[in-house]
Amino acid sequence: MMQSKFPQRWGVKLFYSTLTRVDSNLEPYGDLAEDWSSNDTSDEWTFTLREATFHDGSPVTAADVKATFDTVYDEEVGSPGMGTMGDIQQVEAVDKRTVKFTLGTQNSDFHKLVSKGWGSIVPEDIVTDAEKRQALGTEEHGSGAFTLESFAPGDQLVGVAYDDYYRTGDDGESLPYIDRISQITIPEKSNQVNALRSGDIDIIWQPGYGQWGQLQSLDSVTAHRTPGGEIANFVMNVSVEPWSDPRVRQAVKHAIDREAILNAVQDGLGTIGQDSLLSPAYEYYSDIGAPERDLEKAKELLAEAGYPDGINLTEEFDLTLQTASNIPHMRGTAVLMQEQLKEAGIEFELETMSYDNWSATVWKKSPFYVGAYGMRISGANFMKLMLHSEGNWNGESDWSNEEFDEVVDKAIAETDVDQKQQYMQTAQKLVRDEGPYAISFYIDTIGASKNYVEKYNLNPLAYQIYPDEYALGSDAPTK
Questions:
Q1: Which ranges carry the Solute-binding protein family domain (predicted)?
Q2: What's the fold here for domain 228-443?
Q3: CB of 15 within 8 A of CB of 144?
Q4: Which of 381, 413, 421, 419 has the alpha carbon at shortest distance from 107?
Q5: Per-residue DSSP letters for 222-273?
Q6: pLDDT per residue over 225-249, tens digit each?
Q7: pLDDT, tens digit, for every residue of 57-109?
Q8: CATH number listed for the domain at residues 9-143
């Protein structure tokens, strides 16, 4: 229901509750749920809810949880969140405070997946009414730590503490620690740094990577950095030529200079990509090595595929690389890959547009683009979502590999850490060698805060932010 995904995604964390949360180590802890458990095969999960109220004073019940998940997974509603939290087959409100999920497949990470923003609990009467549901783009009906005071799209979003919020901090104090919070949209990254320096803002959620050195030099500021998993993926949909030929895809993988792209686009703040979705920040990441840049090998692969003189994708196959102009790592990756692939004899035109336009008209619709994904909570579930033949977002690439499907399904079900690692390593190698993506780098997650901001903990999942847990020290200025 959100018109602009980035500013409003942040607001969702202020106003709404999810069943669980994940900390900076990707370990789950309770939010709206005070307890949870699964059966031995991890395909049935039961959550017990805390006593909590929505901001209108009505109690949060299992019926609200059921209605929310049923709506997100309703094909007629068409939510992009459908399938992102596992293969949910049935949600049952056992009683007012107990909800049971029945899954179509085993999933040992399900208790983590429900912490996603798609799992934000909305009152049953709102989420099941199409007209009221549509209004969620500008209204809020949550049970989170803050209530909506004002919202000016593209400018500012303000929340104030909800007096009857149900959570307490580790110190036993009622949350939130702060009385009022504002999310201010400052498009120019250098202006964000200036606002932080002057004290007009207290935290930069996602600063520009070009400002990293400057942020480190500010005496009144703490610069935060941790390995992350955000990517810009060069998509080659295998249902169309020439991407249907794995040799052409492999030629692309050997034609790119990953380190040069990482340094130019991210100022080196990241790690080299292996064409798999998983970065070193994921629990089951394997260092399998990236394809080396070898222009001669790329040209040989093209020749074997029937293109001894190279290939012009736009002229011969009507393929134009599309990406978002206002997302720096998407646009930067597209521009540099266009330049580098030309050296191997692969040419194409480039088209840029706003992210919102790209999201509406290109994502999962075009066979050739540079996309972007933030880090996900579960690497195995992320790989299934994107690349499994039955994954909900497989339509981005239409790639299918029986061995990959098998090992990913086993990894999702497996509870033994060592065995799960073996399955995940096999899956990552298959994607690197045969998959539909070229992924040049994995982006570090960075942030910045004034020194008087306390309890701020940078999560590698940049979108997992919990401002109700932040506090201000005694030296913080009044505003």
A1: 27-392
A2: Dipeptide-binding Protein; domain 3 (3.10.105)
A3: yes
A4: 413
A5: EEEEEEEEEEEEEEE-TTSTTTTSHHHHHHHHHH--HHHHHHHHHTT-EEE-
A6: 999 999 999 999 999 999 999 999 9
A7: 999 999 999 999 999 999 999 888 899 899 999 999 999 999 999 999 999 99
A8: 3.90.76.10
